[in-house]
Structures are given as C-alpha cells and as structure tokens.
Amino acid sequence: MSAVCGIIHMDGKPVSLENGKAMIDKLDIYKLDSKDICFRNQVFFGCGIQYITIESEKEKLPLFDESTGLTITADAIIDNRTELFALLDISEEPNKCITDSELILLAYKKWGQDCPKFLLGDFAFAIWDEKKKKLFCARDHVGKRTFYYYYSNNIFAFCTVIKPLFVVYDKDVNLNERWVTDFLALQGVLHESECSETIYKDIYQLPPAYTITLDSEGIKKNQYWNPLKEVQPLRLNSDEEYDEAFKKVFFEAVHCRLRSSNEVGIMLSGGLDSGSVACIAANKLSQEGKKLKAFSSIPMLKYKDNLSKCYTADESDFIEAISNSVDNIDVTYCRSEGKHSLTNIESFINILEQPYKTIENLFWYNEIIETASKNGCKVLLDGQYGNCTISYGDFFIHALTLYREGRILTLLKEIRSYSKLKNIHPYIVSKAVTKMILPYKFRKAVSNKLNKNYDRFSKVPVNSQLAKKWNVEKRFDEENLNQRTQRYYDLYETHKQIVNPVAFSHIGTMETKLSLANGIVKRDPTRDKRVIEFCLSLPTEQFVRNGHERYLIRRSMEGILPDKVRLNRSTRGLQSADWIQRLIPEWEHIYDKLEACLSDSNINAYIDVDKLKKELSSIRDIPDEKKWYSIRMIIISFIFSYFLKDFYKYT
C-alpha cells in the first residue's frame, strides 16, 4: 500500500518542484518503506510505499510509461490478479513479477475510464495522460483507501491524506462549518452525513466507487458501481446450492487477502464473522506451513461484570474454541491496561487529521494494530462488515419483509418458531411485529403528540443555533438521521444501508490512516465487492428461517467454525463494555480536564456549553454507566476542543 500525492497545473504552467517536495515530505509521519517522485513540467506525482506484499517490494512509483505518455501513482493492492492476467492476455512467467500498479496501468490502456470496474481490491490511484492533458483518478468500490483533492485556479492537487494539500492552498485554511455542525449533531460514531466534503473548507474526498476526470473541459465525477441497480436476485433450488455458492465467493474473498511479504494476522473476537474468517484463513495458511496470528481485545483485569446473561464482555472462551479448532492460530490477548477514551488524543488527531467519535474502542483498536505490526504482521484481517453481509439476519426485518410480500402464513409460522426459540410468548412477538407494520407517518404523528417537548439534540453537544443555521433538522429528516420516531426497514430497504457510501468512507478513513501510521494494512473479506453483491442477491429466508437468525453463516460454516461459536444463540459479545470503568481510577484528573475544556471560548460557537456543564456536574463524583451518553458527549467535546486548539495553533 502507499500514500500518494500530486499537483497538476491545468493551464500548462510548470509545477514548483519545491512545492512537490514539501508535499511528499509531509508524509514522513507515516511508516513508509520508500519514497519517490516524478516531475514533468506541469505535473508532479509522489508516492510513499509500504512493502505489504512481495509484489509491492518491486513497485517503482510513480511510474512513467514513455511509449504512451501515461504516468501513474497508486495506493493499491489488487486481489484478482490471476483474472486480470487472463483478461489482459499476460502470461504468468515465474521469474517476472508484475506489480499491482502495472496491472492498473495495463487495465487503463485496455478499458480506459471503465478500468475500475474490472479491478478487485483496495485502491486509489491517479493516471496522467501527457498527450491528451487529461487526469483520471479512482477510489475502490467500498472506499477502503482514501483520496482527497483540492481544485482552484487551474491547480488540482490530490493526496491519500489531507494536510499535504495545504502546501498548494492559495488562501487561508478554514474549517468547513457545515461538516463540523454535522459531526457534533450526529448520534453514534459517524463523523459525517455525506462523503464528498471534509472538515476543511475546499478540500474534498472522492466517494467510494467514484472516478474523477479532469481535462480542458473541467472536472467530472462518475459513479462506476451501484449494486442497488446492478445486482439481480439469485434463485437456486436448495440450501445446499446456496451454501456452495456462498462458500465459493467467501472463501475466495478470504484467500485472496492472504498475500503478505511477512506474517498474516487477524483481529479476532468470539463471534461468527471474524471467527469464520479466521478458520478459513488458518486452514489455507496451514497448507503453506504458515500460522495465523490472532489479536483479541478483552476487558481490563479489574473489570466488574454487571451485564445481563445475554451479553459477555470477555469472549476468550469462544476465542479459545476457535483457536483450538485448528492447530495454527496463535492468540495474543490485549487488555489495554491503563488506557481509556482520553489516551493518546493528540496522536490520534494528528494521524486522523480531524476530531473523532470512536471513543469507546479506538484505544484498544489501535493497540491491536500496533501489537500486530510489532509481531511482524503486514496484513491484519477482520470481519468488521460481517453483520451487514455474511452473518446478516434479523428476525424483525425478516418479519416485515414477509408481511410486505404478502406471505402472512409464513410470517405467523416464523413468529411461533421465534417465540419458541427465545422462550417469549407469541403475543409479545406479534405485538412488536405489529408496531413495525404500522405506517411510519401514523407512528410519527402519535409520537409527536405524546412527546411535544422532545429535543432531537439532547444527547449530542452541538450548539442549537449552529444546527439551525445549517438546517440540520430538515437535512437529517431527509437522510433518516437522529430519528425521533424509529423507521423500520424490510430486507430490500436495508440494502441501501448496507452499501451506504458514508459508512464505507467513514471506516475506510480510519483504517487507511491508522494503517499508514503502523506499517500494516487492514483487510476485510466481509466487505469484498463479490461478497456484498452475493448477499444482496439472496432472498430473506436465506438469512432467517424457522426463527433462526443469521441462518446462512451458521449453516454454511458447519464443520469449519466450531459449534460452540457457530450455534451460540444465547450470548453476544459486547466490545468495550469496560470503557467507562476504565475512567474511574483517573476520574478526578479527567473531570478537571473536561471542566477546563468547557471554559475554552473557542468552542462556544460550536457546542452547547451550558448543557454540557449541567451534564458534567451530574457525574462529579464517579462516572455512572447509566449516564454513558453524558460522558460520551462531554469527551467528544473535549476531543473537538483539543482539535480546535491544534488547528488555531498551526493556521
């Protein structure tokens, strides 16, 4: 993988080599194995390479092809190499190593702007056509790699990360107030409501599955992949046929991600997703005499378990079952002792280039990446997107789907089966299903009448005046964000959420920058384009049947994933269950820091300080887990204030 950058003067004027070098020098904070540049009059390309695969060690980037006048710089790992060799009529000579960037360039020569459609993997790249004076850029289907750009006064600049773009700024660097407003107004971990803008005004990001073309006629964006329009329903004759089709796609998605010049690791929980990836990967690596290094987060030693019986904070029993099912998985447990949600804030802001909201898990998530890197791993697998793909299957979504399809008898049968499995009276389940069936407008009207004083932003820190200025209420209504009245979706409506480019981009941003900082690449087979398309093609009964949720993965992984995990329906792992308890030993000091940040005048324009002071006073003595939303809101505000100080210091 790589960090790429470039400057193009579309008016033909020469690029300042000094600016180009200043741009690539800003990549030095990341763990790069080599750096190089290509400087040709009106174009500067740069690339800092991380040696992840054997092929990447032979990369010469940027690469200029003298015969065609094409220059490429690429941040890429291509997974369908064998397929491309056939399509491009390339012989696989044992002694000739074709790099991933060379494959991309050959694909561009053959298919032009359609070339991303033929590529599988994690990539972002730029190609300059010197003869046509034309730039072409692309980001992979699910946004695993980032691509930022700035375009003003005939100057186009791009980079894998944001701050090098400041080198070519012809104005003051300002924050994007609309982006900041949404960041502070959104509930949950999402940082943005759309994926084209960034926290910095006039710096944009290329959305997942999009390309950019820049020439004398201007800049054009094009979406080259839209599975909601392209995927067709798959109808097979039996479960066995579905299982075989699924395993063919899923196994290949795992196997192609095992290319590494060193060790392969996995971020392993005790669940179906990463567990399935681990077993498939370990079996494949075993054939090559290699081990799979697993890294798992478990609670701190002094954690006091107060969860209900249906949740567990420590999944080590299930993790051990997975590691014992094959003989080549080595597990390292990471307790992240002494770390909490305020640990390494300065470092994370520097790496991510923005404030962040993943406060419950970022400290242990990063510790796993660091530990894996120190243990020689170049590739770190996970199953992060599995809940949306391979292990998808929610009973109530299934029930609503059956109702809307008019399959009432099947729905009644499923209610009885689910009630029996969960030991819940059918009346209670039927009541919950009936609530979902009621029209949204009716439920919303009732909710509005019963909750006239409802405050949509009570659990987020945004300043209400700022929210009004940027019309947050209306925009969030249109995007179904921070919903006052919950919407319920059937299977086909959830497809839009599964391939939501905002979610893709959010995850990809975190992964790209943390990977660059640690010299390792995160790879997720459950987010593979082929896996996504396959899962979108399936009928609802492949995900839920006879009351059994997550039916496809439980059925397909028989004999591969140990039954203790595969058939576990009684206990779910709860990551970061100890995040509030971790604050307690240092609470007095933490409280003082949080209180001080609310006195910072810089945040008044963005944050409802009076509300936060009131919330903070309610947790003066010991942080109460029941007040998690208050603690979360205040810590996010602290991180934002820290970012602001850093921003004003350097701009």
Automatic annotation (TrEMBL):
EC number: 6.3.5.4
Catalyzed reactions: L-aspartate + L-glutamine + ATP + H2O = L-asparagine + L-glutamate + AMP + diphosphate + H(+)
CDD domains (alphabetical): AsnB
Metabolic or biological pathway: Amino-acid biosynthesis; L-asparagine biosynthesis; L-asparagine from L-aspartate (L-Gln route): step 1/1
Biological-process GO terms, alphabetical: asparagine biosynthetic process
PANTHER family listed in its UniProt record: ASPARAGINE SYNTHETASE, ASPARAGINE SYNTHETASE (GLUTAMINE-HYDROLYZING)
Principal EC category: ligase
Molecular function terms from GO: asparagine synthase (glutamine-hydrolyzing) activity; ATP binding
PROSITE patterns: GATASE_TYPE_2 (PS51278)
Similarity section: Belongs to the asparagine synthetase family.
Positions of the Glutamine amidotransferase type-2 domain: 5-217
Pfam families linked to this entry: Asn_synthase, GATase_7
Transmembrane segments: none
Protein's UniProt keywords contain Endoplasmic reticulum: no
Annotated binding of L-glutamine, by residue: D100
Protein's name in the database: asparagine synthase (glutamine-hydrolyzing)
This protein's UniProt keywords: Amino-acid biosynthesis, Asparagine biosynthesis, ATP-binding, Glutamine amidotransferase, Nucleotide-binding
Organism: Clostridium polyendosporum
